[in-house]
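User: Fold this; tokens only.

Assistant: Input:
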Amino acid sequence: MEINLFYLAPIGSVIALIFAFLFYKLVMKANEGNSKMIEIASAVRDGAYAYLKQQYKVVGIVFFVLVLLFSLLAVIGIQNRFVPFAFLTGGFFSGLCGFLGMKTATNASSRTAQGASESLNKGLKVAFRSGAVMGLVVVGFGLLDIAIWYFVLNYMYDHNVWNLAKEVFEKYTAAGAVFDPGQLADIIKTEEFRHTKLVEITTTMITFGMGASTQALFARVGGGIYTKAADVGADLVGKVEAGIPEDDPRNPATIADNVGDNVGDVAGMGADLYESYCGSILATAALGAALPLLGEANLNAVMAPMIVAGLGILFSIFGIFLVRTKEDASMKSLLAALNRGVWGSSLLLIVALAVMANFKIISWGVFGATIAGLIAGLVIGKSTEYYTSDDNKPTQGIAEQHVMGPATGILDGISTGMLSAGIPVITIVIGILVAFGVSGGFENISQGLYGISFASVGMLATLGITLATDAYGPIADNAGGNAEMSGLGKEVRTRTDALDMLGNTTAAIGKGFAIGSAALTAMALLSAYIEEIKIWIGKYAMENGGIYKVGPVTFHYNLTEGLKLDQFNVIASKAGIADFVRAYDISIMNPLVLCGLFLGAMMVLVFCAMTIKAVGRAAGAMVEEVRRQFKEKPGILEGKDKPDYARCVAISTKGAQTKMIVPSFMALIVPVAVGLILGVSGLMGLLAGALASGFAIACMLNNAGGAWDNAKKYIEKGHHGGKGSAAHKAGVIGDTVGDPFKDTAGPSLNILLKLMSMVSVVFSGVVVKYSMVIGKLLGFVK
């Protein structure tokens, strides 16, 4: 049954891409509006394409260098031979998803504005369908890539391509056993071969996540710097100094601001969640392959996350069709319309998981762990909604503090952000404990880690619709900008404002969901890292006369005559997590682990500082340019002269391209450097320290920024003096402080945590081999 059910993965991915195409066609059939709306949408689209073209050039160079490095390492035998290819496919599909999502979003802005001029429901439909394209493209290409890699690798191992079957055979047989190619058909049917093959395939597949992670980090950091440099510059000079409304066509930075919504919040978020989606599935499959199970149970453990992902796609499509609302709907009813789709797809997934547990494709313990992941995602989403929606006290309290000035509003926003981290952290802690416990972790640690990893799959299974609700936000924001610049009536602007405010809340929920899934995915990757170490220790044991000593433990390549196995003498391919913990002394009392923990916490803060500072510098250049245009062309503010939009777009593009390099490379270099100097135990500390501090800080940054944004909009509704009041100017300043919090630093942390884990997995062969040499030179290793 599990073999037949596995086809749900490729079938579900193809169906997702078909529906993405159909939704795209429906969006393109919608009325594009008048000539002015078309002109503005075209300018935003051209700016977005220009930015992506530049970004992909930079990313292309980075990928070229890394592929050369991986190829060289593979040639000298300290890198998996498939990594260069897997790295490229992961990055390519991640970039493709971002491009297709952004193409749809930029085509949808004027159509959403035109739809809103007819009715609120039409505007919602166009924007949400456009967001659905992003959601379905991400899950479609992500799962399709995974399925193709599995089929290709399985074929290569079963047919002994590049002597892969021989390598597997030698890992589980006694020393001196001879591989007979003529017996291949019988060999591949044995339990030992199938189990070892699955471990090799899944640990190979997980490396393709580094390509997705690398592309995602550049997309998130670069896009975040671009969008917030334009946004901050447009708000400070336009709203505060010149006193003109948001998205006013007289503001030279307004086109760049609208471009930024797409490159940061659509392409960036898509790449981020593509990485989480694939990473969670691949890490779970790798942990499932390593479980001490035989036959169908072992295969089920590998296939189950892919089957669940395929089912999640089908349920997401069903949920998308549930999203609709009535005219003149309130904020709560608009949010209820989106929640109906999300909750509907989640309930269907729970039923499907129960059926899988009943047929023993997964255990009831794994079912419970997955439910824990789903509930954790929903709780984090509701918590984020509470702290960022203007219907609730935290955001209203910030607006009230703005009456007394920017400083009190900023202080209240920071404290609200800090408080808001409490519920997500407690939720993740409870989710991890529940997932670990119900899946049998207190009896078998490997089973517990598999359950935690499966919880991340459950949280992301219905990503098709959750990402649709998130990508909807910037599309609605762009529609509001288009309506303002096109001079549409007040009623239309009221409708687009309602859609935009809903978008701010869904974006905040999406960011909470993204960081929650990132935390679970990063923990799953941390566990998978140990499995990757197992592979390399076995390889080095084979090259070193059959043994490889780490600390007090001697790892043997295979069973030899007279060998007595105990806790200090272990077969590498059969070693458990406890064996590696003992070998590398991964404990809180090990100073190398402690040093890694401190470095991990520090790296999170340094990374955030670099991205926020980059926004500040780029925004400063934008402010100077807008001021220059107002000074040299006074007719701009009078509506007589046309601003130079292209110049502002170019400034944001340059600022993003130059400032994203250092923080991105830091994420690639630091884990390898720490691993080589402090060894495997120090690297484990680095990853754990970054995960713990990064999750809490990301929650704080995302929620503080979202609350400041909606506090400003709450004032704009007429509270505390409304637009143009002192409270409103203070609110704009608070919003500009929050912009790099919620759209640059906070979301980029999601990718940092996962990319560091991915880099550790991919370079595990280098770290295992050379950290021993460096450690001996430094006196860390005897």
